[in-house]
Amino acid sequence: MKFLIENLNFKNKLKIGEQSFLTGVFFLPSALPISIIFFLISIIISLNINKFQFFKDKYNQLLFVCSGLMIFSCINSALHLREITNQTASNIFLGLANWLPLFILFYSSQIYLNNSEKRKIFSKVFISGSLPLIVSCILQSIFKIYGPFKTLNGLLVWFQEPIPQHLGVTGLFSNQNYTGLWLSIILVFLIYEIKPSKRNFQVKIIPTILIPLTAYFLILSDSRNALLGMLIGIFSFIKRKFLLIIPLSLSFFMVLNRLIFNNLDQNYKFFEILLNDRLFNKLFAFDFANFLNYPRIEIYSLASKFILKSPLLGWGPSTFHILYERDWITNNPGISEYPRFQHTHNITFELAYNFGIPLAIIMSLFIFKILKKALFIIFEKSKKNEEFLINKTWFIAVIIMLVSQINDVTYYDGKISILIWILLAGLKSLIEEKFPIKT
Question: Does the pTM of the predicted model rise above 0.90?
Answer without folding.
Answer: no
